[in-house]
Amino acid sequence: MDWKRFLRALVPHAGLGHLLETYLTWSGVGIISSLIASALDAYSEIPYAAYYTSALNDAVGFKFWILLSVIGILLFCASVPVLYLSSRLPQLAGFSLRLRRFTYTFFLVAFDEGALMIGILTANFFDTNERISLLASKSFLFSDVGFFTIIALLILDSLLWLFGEAIYSQNQRGYSGVVEMLVNAPLKYAIPGYLLVTGLVVQVVVAQ
């Protein structure tokens, strides 16, 4: 198997440049907001400063990010077989397009929220301000924000982007990457693989 060709096939039409650009945008907003809130903390006795410092705690919640991610993944599991059937039954094409676009929306919002959260946690990793550090334990439910925690979130959030951009491309209004591979895979491999992955996803969601 040509692994380089395989890995290139996994990349959606949007390209890795889009992934990097979006990360820089949203994580940059998170970092700058955290630094501003940290600076304002020195003036916490002033009402407006205390207001904007505490606002950081309400920026994004880890549970909300998980909720968006789970909904997106479940919709993804439903979108793939509908997409496959729509290629055989043209009357399903419109429904498949709307379902893929709806699925993409959840992935998009979850990815943006995750990138913002990564930016805030990165700022918290370098800034040891006591009040700002409470963000990790109260809003994000992390008792110890370390380098590997941020990397793990980075990987998970990148997977959301990968699946979201694969199921629906805003420019081409089509699909690409891993979704294209799944739809074009032989049924003897695609069906068992799909049932296995979908079963594991449902099991994890129910177990949580």
Description:
The protein has 208 residues and is mainly alpha-helical. It contains 9 helices and no strands. It has helices at residues 3-10, 16-40, 47-55, 62-86, 93-126, 130-138, 147-167, 177-184, 187-207. The protein is elongated. The model has no long low-confidence stretch (mean pLDDT 78).
Count of beta strands: 0
**Largest sheet geometry:** none
Large-scale geometry: elongated
Class derived from helix and strand content: mainly alpha
Termini, distance in Å?
36 Å
Oligomerization: single chain
Uncertain regions spanning at least 5 consecutive residues: none
Write down the Rg. 20 Å
The ordered H/E elements are HHHHHHHHH
Distinct helical segment count: 9
Share of helix among residues?
over 70%
Strand content: under 5%
Q: What does the average pLDDT come to?
A: 78
What are the SSEs and their pairings?
Layout: H1 3-10, H2 16-40, H3 47-55, H4 62-86, H5 93-126, H6 130-138, H7 147-167, H8 177-184, H9 187-207
Helix pairs in contact: 2-3, 2-5, 4-5, 4-7, 4-9, 5-7, 7-8
Short summary of the structure?
This protein has 208 residues and is mainly alpha-helical. The protein is 77% helix and 0% strand. It starts with a helix and ends with a helix.
